[in-house]
Amino acid sequence: MPANVISGKEVSAQIRAELKDEVAKLAAKGVQPGLAVILVGNDPASHSYVKGKEKASIELDFYSEIHRLDENVSEEEVLLLIKKLNADPKIHGILVQLPLPRHISEHKVILAIDPRKDVDGFHPQNVGNMYIGLPAFLPCTPHGVIQMLKRSGVEIAGKHAVVIGRSNIVGKPMAQLLLSENATVTICHSRTKDLPSFTRQADILIPAVGRAGTVRADMVKPGAVVIDVGVNRVDGKLVGDCAFEEVSEVASMITPVPGGVGPMTITMLMYNTVESAKRHSE
Ligand SMILES: Nc1nc(=O)c2c([nH]1)NC[C@@H]1CN(c3ccc(C(=O)N[C@@H](CCC(=O)O)C(=O)O)cc3)C=[N+]21
Question: Residue ranges of the Tetrahydrofolate dehydrogenase/cyclohydrolase NAD(P)-binding domain (predicted)?
Answer without folding.
Answer: 139-280
